[in-house]
Amino acid sequence: MVSAKQYIGNVWNALHSTLVGMRITGKYFLQKPITVQYPDQRLPIPDRYRGIHYLEQEKCINCLACARACPIDCIEMDAIRHGKELEWVSFTLDYQKCMFCELCVYPCPKDCIHMGTEFALVTEDRSELNHDLLSFKGMAPDARVRMKEAEVKKAAKAAAKEAAAAQKAEEATAEEGGAEQDDASPESGGDTGGGEA
Ligand code: SF4
Ligand code: SF4
Q1: Relative to the CA of 50, which ligand 1 atom is closest?
Q2: pLDDT in tens, 157-172
């Protein structure tokens, strides 16, 4: 049977532990919540975080330096060249393989491939992890304008060259005609048959 002393001790322990618990609860109850409601809210991410890549496509020259630097061949790109301009088909990065090492970033001569602060790669379909980093396909509008201007310049140059060649040929024909006339005239001492007879 429990003695009165033991009984009072148990009551005291129960009261004490309840008060300690309530003090801790009260302390946090008065503080601002620290829970982040992801994905609606996000904690700040350091600038040097190595997250999902992004590409400044307008600056990219399709030199393949990034793809060659990747140790596990994650990057593949395809573009058609029109002189100096590029018509983009694809620029993919396979996040099924990527280990976020950043080795593809350093050799870029145009500083146009970067690692961003985005990190969410949630999908039910693994093929969706092969990201296309292009922000547009085909040619950029200003590249199209530059290409048209270059074509016009090229056509004008070709026409000028053709005209110059035609003029040269005309001058040569005129010179030839003049020489033949000189040969045919009596003063020239040419082969007329009657000069010294
Ligand atoms: S971060 Fe590393 S593994 Fe990923 S694409 Fe760049 S070089 Fe390849
Ligand atoms: S290294 Fe830079 S410029 Fe060259 S293809 Fe990659 S992203 Fe483009």
Answers
A1: 1
A2: 999 999 999 999 999 8
